[in-house]
Amino acid sequence: MRHHALSVVASLLAANGALADDMKMPVNASQIKWEPAPPVLPKGAEFALLAGDPSKDGPYVIRLKMPTGYKIPAHNHPTVETVTVISGKFHIGMGDKLDLKKGVRLTAGGYAEAPAKMNHYAWATGPTVVQVHGQGPFAITYVNPADDPSRK
Questions:
Q1: Strand order in 141-142's β-sheet?
Q2: 69 — alpha (psi -120 to 50), left (phi > 0) or beta?
Q3: Distance in angstroms (rounded) separating the CA atoms of residues 55 and 136
Q4: Mean pLDDT, rounded, for 125-140
Q5: CA–CA separation, 100 vs 103, rounded Å?
Q6: How far apart, in whole angstroms, are the C-alpha atoms of residue 39 and residue 138?
Q7: CA distance 76 to 95
Q8: Which of 107, 35, 45, 106 is nearest to 72 (CA)?
Q9: Confidence of residue 89 (pLDDT cuts 50, 70, 90)
Q10: How many Cβ atoms from other residues are within 10 Å of residue 62's Cβ?
Q11: Which residues pair with 123 in a beta bridge?
């Protein structure tokens, strides 16, 4: 029995070692590498991939840095999208058209969840950084196809 318990402990330690090998190194905000946001988002934002691969099946974590006045027209995703505000003033509303008179203003630490296929929109009223968690593959469908910046 004791031999069996030791082998279980050894297996767990080996598994933890494998998990540690797969773990990304922790990073501070100053070490995050920013790039222009992908063409499916309006120009002006920056994007950082923290974990996963949004183009593949599986979880991912990204950050989006938006300048004052940045707007994302009404759109939806095939999967749940969760957003945490890291800094700034981020507004999110539900509906088929971006409406600056509606929506909820979130500040640092604020959280929002948009269910799959629910139309929503967002804008920033100051320099803003949000963290988005989702299940890939990432897809975005604009309510009005003319709002899709990748088609311009």
A1: 104-106, 90-94, 120-124, 71-76, 141-142
A2: left
A3: 6
A4: 96
A5: 7
A6: 13
A7: 10
A8: 45
A9: very high
A10: 19
A11: 71, 91
Rg (CA), the chain: 19
> How far, in Å, CA of 123 to CA of 127, rounded?
11
Task: Report the predicted TM-score, pTM, of the whole model to 2 decimal places.
Answer: 0.83
The helix/strand/coil state of 99 is coil
* Residue that is written with structure tokens 């709002």 in the block: 147
Largest separation between any pair of C-alpha atoms in the chain: 68
- Dist. CA 76–CA 121, nearest whole Å: 8
Six-digit token string for 73: 């027209």
| Predicted pLDDT at 25 | 80
- The backbone torsions φ and ψ at residue 55, rounded to the nearest 5 degrees and listed phi first, read -85, -5
User: What number of CA atoms fall less than 13 Å from residue 143's CA on the CB side?
Assistant: 15
Q: Across-strand partners of 113?
A: 82
115-125 mean pLDDT: 97
* Mean per-residue pLDDT of the chain: 88
- CA-to-CA dists, residue 126 to 67, 93, 129, angstroms: 6, 17, 10
Q: Is the pLDDT of residue 14 over 80?
A: no
